[in-house]
Amino acid sequence: MALSILVSLCFFLLQASGQPFIGINYGQVANNLPPPSATAKLLQSTTIQKVRLYGADPALIKALGNTGIGIVIGASNGDVPSLASNPNSATQWVNSNVLPYYPASNIILITVGNEVLLSGDQNLISQLLPAMQNMQRALTAASLGGKVKVSTVHSMAVVSQSDPPSSGLFNPSFQDTMRALLQFQRDNGSPLAINPYPFFAYQSDPRPETLAFCLFQPNSGRVDSRNGIKYMNMFDAQVDAVRSALNAIGFKDIEILVAETGWPYQGDSNEVGPSVENARAYNGNLIAHLRSMAGTPLMPGKSVDTYIFALYDENLKPGPGSERSFGIFKPDLSMSYDVGLSKGSQTPQTPSKSPATPQLPKPAGGWCMPKSGVSDAQLQASLDYVCGQGLDCSPIQPGGACFEPNTVACHAAYAMNLYYQNSAKNSWNCDFSQTATITSQNPSYNGCTYPGGST
User: Fold this and answer.
1) Which ranges constitute the DSSP H helices of 24-113?
2) Which of 94, 264, 320, 431 is most buried by its number of CB atoms within 10 A?
3) What residue stretches are annotated with the X8 domain (predicted)?
4) Hey, how many other C-beta atoms are within 10 angstroms of the C-beta on 271?
5) Would you give the distance in Å from CA 213 to the centre of its chain?
6) Catalytic residue among 260, 277, 323, 404
7) CA of residue 321 relative to chain centroid, distance
8) Which residue of the set 115, 209, 255, 323 is catalytic?
């Protein structure tokens, strides 16, 4: 099986403690959704630990009580004018949608409005900050200030310049509004929530190399001409463009939250990109990348909180067929495509060490190393794959004994060998799509020790 496909599949096969930086969106533009209790049970059967609601459905919030799942709830764009003009409206909103359920229902964030700046409604845009301020005051009055954060969600359209990522800038027409919103968020410790979609980037540039770049698959990468950084996937490039835009106007301390990202598994015949294979690859490789804790080039060593779109299909959404085909699960609770998301799915693909199946002779120990001439893209895919398996990659993370030299080649070498040493040590455990081989030469150096050796 090709390594890119393995990367797509294997990282959802992890059980253990779940994925604290992985959430999922629960849209309700549908008339065939399962009961809230069934949804709560479904989420508990997965490794997902956060869910974002677009509204504040009381039945859903209550059903998620005592599950430990973090809940993002939303005040709609239609709520913004009353929240802005009347502090009592915000108090009533919190009294109705938060206090009856908290803390049993683990509400962690309230989003006030969704892509308001993209609406073009200047009156609504001007009311957004006062609405957020009143919501924050209502939470503080209820002794929840700092416990439940307040933010709003933006389309990537707020970034007018994003290529290369280091040139990222907010749209000049939104600059003053963004500054005011971000100052509020800095004062209250809430994240900038953004919706990056490599899917749409591919639709606007449907070349094979762009698809590989968007799906985290092996590709030649794209070099940022301003700083020389090579990007290996569109997600990192989009997130770092937002990081650059924040830095450019003096908000280096604001955290980024990816409120939506996903890929449709089917669409209309004239749509480019939707397919089960692509959806599985994007979501699986995204999670693999996040689990590796590699971060982005401008924010290394940390994974951005990311909410995948979406839990279910929404059969009443308008627009092209893809809009109704983002669900990882069907309303009947079956999977749209199997990404091994359930806690009961098989454990990481580390082969059994049982002596009952010694089908081929084992090599005499040694170390697993990349072959010469392997591209950084292939090495990065292997690195993400191994570290997403739950193996201890801390030595190649910042501060680790093997972090320096800080290159993809060195980190991948350590990771490949780590995987091999934790497997049955058969020759195929050091294959990585024919990019690695077993050597008798110990690659350890200075304080960096590679596990392995003779058996």
Assistant:
1) 36-44, 58-63, 80-85, 87-97
2) 264
3) 366-450
4) 16
5) 16
6) 260
7) 24
8) 115
Task: State the helix-helix crossing angle for 3-10 and 376-387, rounded to 10 degrees.
Answer: 30
Answer yes or no: 115 catalytic. Answer: yes
Confidence tier at 388 by pLDDT (50, 70, 90): confident
Distances (CA, A) of 364 to 285, 441, 449, 455: 33, 12, 19, 6
Residue 454's pLDDT is what? 58
Compute the distance between CA of residue 260 and CA of residue 21 in angstroms, rounded to an integer: 13
pTM of the full predicted structure? 0.75
* DSSP sequence for 386-442: HHTTT---GGGSTTSTT--S--HHHHHHHHHHHHHHTTT--GGGG-TTTTEEEESS-
Residues found in the chain: 455
Cis omega (within 30 of 0) for bond into 405: yes
Q: What is the mean pLDDT of residues 399-423?
A: 89
Kindly report, residue by residue over 436-450, the tens digit of the pLDDT: 888 888 888 888 999
- Residue 391 and residue 429: Cα distance in Å, rounded? 15
Nearest 5°: CA angle at 282, between 279 and 288? 135
Does residue 260 have an active-site annotation?
yes
**Residues forming a β-bridge with 368:** 438
pLDDT in tens, 117-157: 999 999 999 999 999 999 999 999 999 999 999 999 999 99
Q: What is the distance between the alpha carbons of residues 105 and 50, in angstroms, rounded to a whole number?
A: 12
Q: Is the pLDDT of residue 355 over 70?
A: no
